[in-house]
Amino acid sequence: MEAAAQVCTRTxxxxxxxxxxxxxxxxxxxxxxxxxxxxxxxxxxKDDCAKKGATIWMVRAAAWQ
Length: 65
Hints:
Elements: E1 4-7, H1 14-23, E2 28-32, H2 39-51, E3 55-59
Parallel strand pairs: 1-2, 2-3
């Protein structure tokens, strides 16, 4: 099963949500910039997602008019 999720929350909370989503089978995770408090944390999230067969993407939120 493939599922996608977009995470739009406080930067400090994003790593925990990503871990939880991937552990529950989400295969595509889209993060709102900046994605994590540190570059190291972003790298860890990317590596963990890859090990579990998920992809992680950085997106920029845009307001639609």
